[in-house]
Amino acid sequence: MATVAHEPSRPAEADERYSGLLAWLATTDHKRIGILYIGTGLVFLLVAGFEALLMRIQLTQPRLEFLSPQAYNALFTMHGTTMVFLVGMPILFGFINYVVPLQVGARDMAFPRLNALSYWTFLFGSLILHFSFLMNAVPDMGWYAYAPLTVRPYTTHPGVDFWIVSLLVTAVGSIATAVNVVVTVAKLRAPGMTAFRMPIFTWMGLATSVIALYALPPLAAAQVMLLFDRQFGTHFFDERLGADPLLWQHLFWFFGHPEVYILILPAFGMISEIVPVFAGKRIFGYPFVVGSGVFIAFYSMLVWAHHMFTAGMGFIPEAFFGATTMVIAIPTGVKILNWLATIWGGRIRFEIPMLYALALLVLFPIGGVTGVHFATVPIDWQTTDTYYVVAHFHYVLFAGTILASLGGFYYWFPKMFGRMLDDRLGIWQFWLTAIGVNLTFFPMHVVGLMGMPRRVYTYPDLPWWGAINVLISLGAFLTAAGVLLLVVNVAYSLRRGRIAGENPWDAWTLEWATASPPPPQNFTAPLPPVRSDRPLWDVGEETGDRPVLRNEGRQETGGGSGEGSSEAARAGFVARTPATLLGMYTFIASESFFFGGLLTAFLYYRSRDDGGFGPHDLDFLQTALFSVALFASSLTIVLAEKRLHHGDLGGFRAWLLATIALGAAFIVGQGMEYVTLYREGVTLSTNLFSSAFFTLTGFHGLHVLIGLLALGIVAWLAFKGEFRNGRHEGAVRSVAWYWHFVDGVWVVVFTVVYVLGMLT
Amino acid sequence: MPVEELEHGGHGTHGDGGEHELPHESLSPITLAAGIGLLGFGLLTSLVFSIVGIAVMGWALARWIEEMRHG
Q1: What is the CATH number of the domain that holds A717?
Q2: Cβ–Cβ of A717/B65 closer than 8 Å?
Q3: Which of A38, A458, A480, A509 could join A199 via S-S bond, C-beta 3.0 to 4.6 A?
């Protein structure tokens, strides 16, 4: 496709209410928000990199005293937390934000304001974490915050609280982004872009969002429990009262391992875009590349406990999680083989994005193979908590996520800013980074197998340990030089870079069918027809602008005229469902996992009878009575919806008020129960059961209150005449579904807490 | 013709079929996020920040709803 060179301008907004800095603060444009995410991630990369360099200086020689043990602990905690939550996630979500709407041919994300809220909550959360430096309260317990080590009295300073609250705030943004991505991909795809014509990066963005939706809420639940233990005297992780010391580890790693896939699947998506474009071929085995990513997205919730092989879980769980972990290597291997097969026989262009893709192809498998080592329980026992583990996960996350992100950055930078990054600086940066990464992390395998422990601020002067650590530190500084060169390159190229044009790489996905940078509404001309997964090449072949490649004739993929009824049904369901309602369904699915975390804790502890407050002390009949009110409110909200649908605004208001009254009655009932228990001396801190009971029912009550607030807003708007002629009906249905969810959760909670309590 | 093409009215239109309303620039999201941040920060330092955070959240939410009503 011919490219049109033009002088790039900064991305403009759809309107001009604000200018300068205010325009960025008020933006709802997915492109600007994507750039903000990526830019913030790069700033935190410099911060976390600086922390890593300080640690490497300390470890250059045995028994150095450059850092105190406390300072070292704080640095490795902040480095890990920052790299995972404030570098990897925002950079990848930034690319997803920028690229996915363009790739599916949409003008923006499904919920642009929510998208802006996501970014700013992420930013404020990350600032809270770093404010701990000013408060002399830097977290120093590792990014995994293992309880009971992190509960009082073992950790008294507030670093843990900063860690919890900051990550809870950023999680709000991450979950909102994930909901937004799911709805954008489901609702806003271009005509003809059926599931199997979607770009693979979009697929991986979707898969990543699914993981974030189910993995982040259990972590939030665990963090809430830890915060309550530390601030309100609950006992979730207090082994002195019989708490299970493994509960935190289970909940944390149920998030922690899928998090690895949150960080690697978008990276795989980038490689799946770059490799075929620069090999000049269709990707080999598109359905397998997509299918393996989707498989990983769901299967990754079955492997968490391989992080706990030395925790004493017992033979059967260890065998189970060892086996499941080995299996997950297969879909990852499938992708590697598909990329290799794509390159095979291709006309390779060794542009910088392709160099990073090739580097990943060589280096990532090192991290993958050592991951399989850890699935083997006896090997895990020998190597756990050594530098072998550090080597493994840095080959996955640095040689995987960061190298792919650098490739993606070189690939999409011209689209974002209209100028090419400088090639000479880029080549220097590539080799510095590639050599630095290997010099840093490969020797860690060796010193790890020699037994050097990680998470310790110094080490004994044993043969070769000092020499190997000198190499590692040298590699870290080379890598840092590479990252700094990227900063120089960006600064230089934004002013002096070569004009990119629409499609400088001769790529085929829809983001390359518009100007660079794209206009506020993304596309000014009609989109090209989407008849395969590479619409721009199809157009070129049809018009004769590009040759039909050998063995690469246009193949229409998925969604042709013979499309199955399930596809039609799916499309029908999505088409019928308003975006707001689809977003609410997605949010509800995610929120279910939050309650799943709290219920897990409750079920852990409900049967640990210490002779004190327990299930038998609950007032079943009174709670049943107020529960009937809540269950009835689901019926009244349905009646309200029906009245609205029939245009009966008066009836709508009446049933809405009835719903609010019933919900309020339930809250009053719950309040009465709490007051009665408090008068009997039962509080959050009485015992394990009371901790789990009040936290579970209290968070449900909080959700009811939020539902009542939403219903109150709808009622207020209804009395202002807002819902005439079906206006905002989707929003009303969304609030109604949230209310049904609150009711549904109570069905489960009431059954587990009260009915089972009465029966036993 | 694929189902979605039929539903979206054929080639040429965007993914949202032209129905996806792009909002104006708005300071409500950053204000609401600041409120959430203050609420969290107050839990770590002083409840005054949390109370201010809740007030800011309420104000931002009201503004957000007004913007949605009036475009």
Answers
A1: 1.20.120.80
A2: yes
A3: A509
DSSP calls for A302-370:
G-GGGGGGGG---HHHHHHHHHHHHHHHHHHHHHHHHHHHHHTT------HHHHHHHHHHHHHHHHHHH
Asked if residue A589 and residue A492 are part of one domain, the reply reads no
Contacts of A190 in chain B (CB under 8 A): 8, 13-15
Q: According to the model, what pLDDT value does residue B1 have? A: 29
Question: Considering only CB atoms, which chain B residues are within 8 Å of A563?
Answer: 2-3
**Interface residues from chain B to A (CB-CB < 8 Å):** 1-5, 7-16, 20, 22-30, 32-34, 36-37, 40-41, 43-45, 64-65, 67, 69
Q: How many domains is chain A built from? A: 2
Q: What is the pLDDT of residue A612?
A: 86
pLDDT value of residue A176: 98
Residues of chain A with pLDDT under 70: 1-16, 545-571, 609
Residue A99 sits at φ, ψ, to 5 deg, of -90, -40
Domain-embedded: residue A98: yes
Say whether the peptide bond before residue A218 is cis (omega within 30 degrees of 0): no
- In this prediction, residue A310 carries a pLDDT of 95
Confidence grade of residue B15 (pLDDT, cut at 50, 70, 90): low
Q: A479, A496, A513: which is the final residue of a domain?
A: A496
Q: Which of A452, A475, A496 represents a domain boundary (last residue)? A: A496
Structural domain span for residue A235? 25-496
Q: Are residues A442 and A584 in the same domain?
A: no
